[in-house]
C-alpha cells in the first residue's frame, strides 16, 4: 500500500526514499567491494600488502558490525514476541 497519495491529500510530506539503514548497507557493500578489489590486486601482484591487510581488516570489522546489528534486531524481535498480549 502506497501511503504517499494519502499523505499528499492530508498535506503531509512523503518519506524520503533513502534512510539510514539503506545508506549503512550501501557503505557496507562498498567496503566489502573495496576489500575484494584489494585481494584481487594482491593476487595479481599489483597491490601493496599493507593496503591489502588494511582493507581486509576493515572488511572484517564491517562484517562483525553487521552481525552484531542483526543479533540485536533478532533479540528485540524475540523480546516483542514474549510480551503478553
TrEMBL record:
Q: Where in the cell is it found?
A: Bacterial flagellum basal body
Q: Name one GO biological process term.
A: bacterial-type flagellum-dependent cell motility
GO CC, any one term: bacterial-type flagellum basal body
| InterPro entries per UniProt | FliE
The UniProt entry, under Pfam families, shows: FliE
Per UniProt, what is one GO molecular function of this protein? cytoskeletal motor activity
Subcellular location, principal: other
Which keywords belong to this entry?
Bacterial flagellum, Cell projection, Cilium, Flagellum
Tell me the PANTHER family matching this sequence.
Answer: FLAGELLAR HOOK-BASAL BODY COMPLEX PROTEIN FLIE, PTHR34653
Q: Which family does it belong to?
A: Belongs to the FliE family.
- What protein does this entry describe? Flagellar hook-basal body complex protein FliE
Q: Which organism is it from?
A: Jannaschia helgolandensis
The organism that produces this protein has a lineage beginning with: Bacteria, Pseudomonadati, Pseudomonadota, Alphaproteobacteria, Rhodobacterales
